[in-house]
Sequence to fold (188 residues):
Amino acid sequence: MLPQSFFDKPALDLAKSLLGCTLVHKTKEGITSGVIVETECYHQDDEASHTFRGPTARNKVMFGPGGHAYIYFTYGMHYCFNVVAGQDGKGEGVLIRALEPLEGMEIMKKRRGKDNIHQLCSGPAKLVQAMGISKADYGTPLFAGNLHIKSPDKAKAIQVATGPRIGIKQAVDKPWRFWVKGNPFVSK
Fold:
């Protein structure tokens, strides 16, 4: 598992650093895991961020120390998973947009109702469903426990691509979306 200190950096840096790391979730159904292949960063000076207007009951974990899970409900039907970044008191985070499934693919297929491996985790709501992440995981430390992030495979070099974020209406010009160049599991 990554130490808490790994997450103690600005969201812009953490979003790139998380690429190639492995997200792991141990549940009663079994273990699911996947390599993080796409991220987006947000911080409180950013109009598109949930923290732009300050702390609320919904986003309070985002203003805490880095390395915790921020889970939120969107579009009235999906949950999304973010990694809190930076220092205590700053509202920063990284949306995990896509994973390359590694372990527990049969569990993921059942949860998603899909057999195509490329459709399991190729979007923020899809990966939450496939990994069995729920609102109950809100605030979970990602450096210990059943939901955690592991170090990247240092033997596997990756090329990072960057571009504008997806699915937002404010600050759409910021190139704060990052992905593993050429990876077939990146969202469309």
Remarks:
- The CA atoms of residues 79 and 112 lie 14 Å apart.
